Amino acid sequence: MDVDSTVQEAKMAYPSDAQLMRRLAHKGAKVLGFCKKTVPCEVPPELSLDLAAINRKAKEYFFLAKTTSTEKKREMFRAYHQLVKRQLQPLLAFFLTLSRPVVAALPWNIRQAVNHLTSHSWRFVLDVAHFIRTHTIKPDKLLSFHCFEVACIRKGKVGKENEFGRVFQLGRI
Predict the structure, then answer these.
(1) Do 87 and 57 form a contact (C-beta atoms < 8 A)?
(2) What is the rounded distance in angstroms from the CA atom of residue 49 to the CA atom of residue 84?
(3) What's the pLDDT at 125?
(4) What does the pLDDT profile of the chain (173 residues) look like in tens digits?
(5) Euclidean distance between CA atoms 113 and 117, whole angstroms
(6) Contact 164/9 with Cβ under 8 angstroms?
(7) Burial environment of residue 169 by CB neighbours within 10 A (0 to 12, 13 to 18, 19 or more)
(8) At what angle do helices 70-97 and 51-62 cross, to 10 degrees?
(9) What is the SS3 assignment for 167?
(10) What is the structure's pLDDT at 137?
(11) CB 164 within 8 A of CB 152
């Protein structure tokens, strides 16, 4: 009996935490903007997301010189993570308070974004915090907000150290 495994690669960009945090903030801003236009009675007037500050901090981190020390990079990433976490916390608390009829009345794409934000985003933020503290990745960490089954696979192939996708086991008698 022959047993082999193969990787079905996912159609996604390389999953960096910095880029995923930026996408998460943009998704939150999109949903908040829509909610302020369509259901203004539900949205607290003081609720906002400073997307410009998040983009500025992301660019500071993305465009660090290659010769920058590891400690400086980690410090910048920690500050970036803290900013995103601080900005998203009240936003996620608001999305969790939305009633089912209000969420059901939203268009499908906004409803899907609200579901992703309420179910997966805080876990992702906590997983990134775990990485900042321990410098190790949690085994079940999210690598994508649209492909939840994606995992990092290391098969030891030359030129393909890390592959992202799903593993399929193939057997032949």
Answers:
(1) no
(2) 9
(3) 86
(4) 655 555 555 555 556 788 888 989 999 999 999 988 887 777 888 888 899 999 999 999 889 888 889 899 999 999 999 999 999 999 999 988 888 888 888 899 999 888 888 888 888 888 888 888 998 877 777 666 655 556 555 666 666 666 666 555 666 66
(5) 6
(6) yes
(7) exposed
(8) 150
(9) strand
(10) 74
(11) yes
Two structure tokens written together for 63: 């465009």
As a whole number of angstroms, the distance between CA 110 and CA 103 comes to 9
pLDDT number for residue 28 = 92
Residue with tokens 């829509």: 34
CB 94 within 8 A of CB 49: no
Q: Which long-range contacts (CB under 8 A, 24 or more apart) does 146-153 make?
A: 146/12, 147/10, 147/11, 147/12, 148/120, 150/10, 150/12, 150/15, 153/7
DSSP structural state of residue 157? B
Which structure tokens are listed for 156?
């030891």
Q: Which two tokens stand for residue 70?
A: 């590891």
Give the separation between CA 12 and CA 152, rounded to whole angstroms. Answer: 12
State phi, psi for 168 to the nearest 5 degrees.
-115, 130
Q: Which two tokens stand for residue 126?
A: 């906590």
Amino acid at 54: I
pLDDT for res 34: 92
